[in-house]
Amino acid sequence: MGRHTLEYPRTKDNTVRRHNERAIYALETIHKLINSSQLLDVSFNPPDSPFPATLPMIGHMGSFDRPSADLGDPLDLYLHGYVSSRMMNVARATNKDKPEGDDQQQQQQQQQQEQGLPVCVAASHVDALILATSAFNHSYNYRSVVLFGYATLVEDEAEKTYAMELITNGVVPDRWKTSRQPPTKAEMQSTSILKVKITSGSAKFRDGGVSDDKHDLQNEEAQNSVWTGVVPVFSSLGEPVSTTYNKVEVPANVTDFIKDYNNENKEYVLSAIKK
């Protein structure tokens, strides 16, 4: 019997309404897209500003309590940042601020302290430019994901080390153990890790080719004058460039990763056009 596919529950926050036929709630699909994104856009509400803040951050999905968990299991999101960055300070203060206001406000603030800093995390990949007869039917093939959750600072040293290794290996597989070890005390002290407990999430994919309106397909003048089609967009990695002081051959984990990354991205983009 096959394994049951776990999904995030549909809530008012994560339910896809526009083109809901493109919505995906499966944990495995969402977590895979997060882990394949070099940068994540993380949004939060600073208490001293009327504007929400959005920061590009490096992160990876994983489970400290269950290291053997795979992408289809419930996972936490670990985010890497400088110890005194604005977001780290806001997250730190969230757990320490004394609740103020009336009883209801204090209860809400107390609940937020226990849960952490509310955040929204987004990532996206553009896979193709869809060029139709009409400008209004132009589009992208894309993969996008949004996660909602509560962020807290990781205080446990073992979990912090686990998260740093997880994030480093998310850049290039096995990079943690093939880099200089162990980290210095200053390196550990200058780096903070946020752990986001995910409450909900969803993904939205667009694949296929051009979708022209019937009246444009029957418009001979337009068909004779407008080029229509799909322009694939490949995310690819180039040849490694060594430092001037490097004395080591490019390791296999780097060259293999580059080859696999480029092949997988090209294969996905081309197959998505045909769907």
Automatic annotation (TrEMBL):
Pfam family name, one: Pyridox_ox_2
Sequence segments annotated as region (Disordered): 94-113
Top-level taxon in the UniProt lineage: Eukaryota
Low complexity composition bias: residue spans: 104-113
SUPFAM superfamilies (alphabetical): FMN-binding split barrel (SSF50475)
UniProt protein name: Flavin-nucleotide-binding protein
Biological source species: Trichoderma harzianum CBS 226.95
